[in-house]
Amino acid sequence: MDEVSTCSENSLSQNLSVGEVAIRSSVAVSTLHFYESKGLIKSRRNSGNQRRYSRDVLRRVAVIKVAQRLGIPLAAIKDAFSTLPEGRTPTAKDWRLLSSKWKEDLDERIASLIQLRDNLSDCIGCGCLSLERCTLYNPEDKLAEQGSGPVRIEANVELGK
Predict the structure, then answer these.
(1) What span, in angstroms and rounded, lies between the C-alpha atoms of 83 and 66?
(2) Is a pLDDT exceeding 50 seen at residue 94?
(3) Which stretch of DSSP H or E encloses residue 44?
(4) DSSP 84
(5) Would the CA dihedral through 63, 48, 30, 8 be positive or negative?
(6) How many angstroms separate the CA atoms of 62 and 40, rounded?
C-alpha cells in the first residue's frame, strides 16, 4: 500500500526524475542527457545529486522530437527555445511561432528535393566521372569551365589526395 501511495505522490510532484521523463516521453535516458548537454532542456539536482526536471520538460521533449522528425537541426531548435520564457510549458501559440520560423526552411528543402527527384532521370549512375553535364552532381554545368572529364578527381590526384 505504501508503495502505491509513494508512486502516486511521486507522479503528482512538480519534479520528475530522468527515468520518469524517459518513460513519459518515450526517449532514452541517454538522449535526455544529450539534450541537456546541448542546452535544449534543463534539470536541477536534488540533495542526492539526482537530476530532477520540471513538468514543462515533457512538452519541450515533444517539440524536440517533432522538430527533429522534420529535419530541424538541434541548434535551430535551441535557438527557437531561447525565444520562450524560462520555466513555462510551450503553448500552442508558442508552437505556431516556432513552426512558422521553420516553415520557410522546410519549403526550401522540399523544393530542392523535388528538383533532385525530377532530375534523377538525367542520371545514368556513372558517378559523374565522364559526363560533361550532370544536373545532380554539377548543377548548371559549373565544372565545364575547369575542363572535361572527372575534373574533381583529377584535381585531387594532382594534389596528392
Answers:
(1) 18
(2) yes
(3) strand 44-45
(4) S
(5) negative
(6) 12
| CA 9 to chain CA mean position, Å | 35
Quick check: 11 and 52 in contact, CB under 8 A? no
CA distance 132 to 137: 11
Which amino acid, residue 21?
V
Q: What is the CA radius of gyration of the chain?
A: 25
State how far the Cα of 122 lies from the Cα of 26, in Å rounded to an integer.
43
Cβ neighbours of residue 22 closer than 8 Å, sequence gap 6 or more: 28, 29, 31, 32
| CA–CA distance, 30 with 56 (Å, rounded to integer) | 19
Write the pLDDT tens digit of every residue in 65-91: 999 998 899 999 998 888 887 756 778
CA 38 to mean position of chain CA atoms: 12
Neighbours of 41 (CB within 10 A): 21
Which amino acid makes up residue 134?
C
CB environment 63-97: b (16+ within 10 A), e (fewer) = bbeebeeeebeeeebeebbeebeeeeebeeebbee
Number of H helices, E strands in the chain: 7, 3
Q: Is the pTM of this model over 0.85?
A: no
